[in-house]
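Objective 1b: paired records.
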Amino acid sequence: MRMRLSQILISFALSAALLIGLEVVTSTILPALGWHEYRLTFNVLIILFLAIRLDSPAVPWMIMALQMIHSVFSIEGWALGTLAGLIVMTSANYLKDLLHLTTAIMTMITVQLFQMIWYVTVTLIICLKISNFDKFGMIIWSFIPGSILLSLISPLIFWVLEQIWRVPSDSGPRGVEI
């Protein structure tokens, strides 16, 4: 299935609006409720959806744009997240024929796997930047509780994104060609 440019722009704008809404909630409401130690990185879920379900040379540009939006709400730089997003996208492209997100359990397992790739990449780069690998375990551990929660809610987020991008749930592993 091919998408028109107007569909792509509208779908991307809705995805960006979803990300902004989720970032506002995780940046303001969750800390007000006492959740200070861990962050829910919904940008990873949206980028993962795009990497798995869309076939397009525009996906890396979408990843960069989503990371720039995310960086407004986070001290994490957009470049670090974009690099991790591209690594995850490349990994997902190699595994696309094996990825069948037909059940909630498979979606959760796949999301957790790719989140771990993302977080290991980010942690390695952070450790390289600070020249201290002694903190690797502590940094990676700070991502784990949020990643488990994100994996549990990933079927719901992916369903919303399927509605936004008009991707049928049973479209097969290749997704939508743009």
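Objective 1b, second protein:
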Amino acid sequence: MSTSSRQSLLTEQINVLVKHFGIERVRKAVAKVPPEDGKELRRPARKNGARSQGRIRPNGISSLESIRKTHPEKHRLLSEFVLRLKSRQVLPESQDIRHFVQIIGLKEIGGKSREDMLPKLIRFLVDQPIDKLRADIEGASNISEQQRLMGFSVLTEKLLGKS
């Protein structure tokens, strides 16, 4: 990239910053930048990210792949379960997943959509013993909207003090 094209790119970027933040804030920010003495400027560390903690949380698939060689039977079970989850043959709604994780002992699962919850669910299941995993996966097939509603009615009856 030539010097003139770099200069025009820089000018464009500064104009965008000025338009968005105002000239005074841009000037103050530029004033805080230390003079460059032949070294590259260091990027500020993120205060709130997985990379700043020195590790990256694996997604569900990478944690599943991590057990391929060490636990082939568990890998096979979970791989089949993931395929059924993705095709919505089992736990088709996000509420079904929330109900399922309560049953299997996961205290809380964040995320609003199924896509946000699935990696967290898989990471939890990867760490489970094979016998418990078999039972949990088998139990997932029985979870439906009707069962969820039945669970809520039992809870409501208990809260209201009915037998």
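Confidence is low (pLDDT under 50) at residues 49-57. The helical segments are 3-21, 23-32, 60-65, 72-86, 94-104, 114-126, 130-140, 145-160.
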